[in-house]
Hints:
Blueprint: E1 2-11, H1 17-28, E2 31-36, E3 42-48, H2 50-61, E4 69-77, E5 87-89
Parallel strand pairs: 2-5
Antiparallel strand pairs: 1-3, 1-4, 2-3
Helix pairs in contact: 1-2
Amino acid sequence: MINVQLTITGRVQGVGFRWGTLQIARQLGLCGFVRNQADGTVYVEAQGPKETVDRFICRLAQGPTSYAIIDRIQQTAGHLTDYRGQFTIRR
């Protein structure tokens, strides 16, 4: 089990990015959250088995919606956290 913190840049706000991210994470059974940042990036924390988290990041890199354009995904290791078994959108 791993936890990653992602900062995603590109055309990622106002294009359904958070909703698409939520759907992918739930399909894969991951826990964590996604939120917009004031600087125009999107921040994601995702937790689950390493192979599943890697698959999640690959799907995000392709864009969770057809309107999103991903320029960069910055990834750092996080600490295992109790997300109460859910992946959510935070404001």
